[in-house]
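Section 3.1: Structural characterization of target chains.
Under the original work plan, the team committed to producing a structural model for every single-chain target entering the pipeline before any wet-lab resources were allocated. The record below documents one such target. The sequence was received from the expression subgroup and is listed exactly as submitted; it comprises 379 residues.
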Amino acid sequence: MAVLELSEELRLLDGMARDFALNELVEGREERDHYPFAPPSEDLLAKAREVGFFTIFLPEKMGGAAEPVQALCLVLEEVCREDASLGGAIFTVALAQELLRQAGSEKALMRAFAQAASLREALPAFPSFHNPGDTAPLLVAERGGRGYRLTGSVEYVVLGNVAGKALLPAASAAGGWSLFTVDLEGEGVRVSEPVLSLGLHACPAVDLRLEGVPGTLVGEEGKGQLYFEAAADRLSAASAACSCGVMKGSFDAALEYARQRMQGGREIVNWSEVRMILSSMAVRAKAAEMLVRRAAAAVDGGEPGWELASRAAALLVQEMAVEVTCDGIQILGGNGYMQDYGQEKRFRDAQQLQALLGMVPMRRLRYIRRVVDGESPWS
């Protein structure tokens, strides 16, 4: 039984995303996890672009989806079910596009993405595993002539060594922080070696150092946090979809192993203790699916309270994903810790995905602050 009745467009997209994940992500998953000690999979990013995964969150008149949050969630769920690294890249592109939209820069969207000729031009880089409001910006923007010059550093910029441009947060004289687009191929930009993180190894990320690099202001000066929080409201459900996909992948692998592994003269799937663990995994993965899809529909439909619904889904599903992937390791016993079985990767990925849009403790504090200030979580 379907959790929600999907439109024909969404059903087709879901099927296409599932086929893509099975055909393109299963083979070579372990080798891709060796990044940054192996080259980034730019061919995989190019294939994802060809099937439209990077244009879902563009305005509909630019080729985006009619129900963008639901569409993005379906794609991320299927992709992350097989390899969350590509999901991290898709999420980052959607976040950058949403930030530009929140800032009222549809012309910049069209110029930067809809008309892009190459992969490098089509992919924006952004530090999507960080909320710039959580710490003081290390990048400073100063007026220089007719524009701005950016000096300082930005850590863990996703797609920073693949994209041609980056959307970066920087402190400015107006107070707070602002958003700027930067040409990553210009003078004064230093790109670090790829950063090795806990999970999502094949989602390219680097540190950037800028020395007087020209930057184009996006939106109003000093309004970066406003744009980011508005984008986070809409995209929190999508971050939950990434974790939901990892949960499903962990359960799939655990069930397949339990059916094949013989112990004591029978498959371990017939042991009551194993079945209890599998049951717990299946229940939580299904509950996560229902929660994500309902939250995504609420966001697209503009239902009352959709902002807190989206954020609550992310906080809960990401926490559940860590628990489920831990159980997935336990089903495999010692093999669960081996790279060639994929379960330890899913556990690392689930941990890493919790950092999307900022640190969990800060996101929890922001959530309850809004409730205390008068937003009802029950709407």
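The chain has twelve helices and nine strands.
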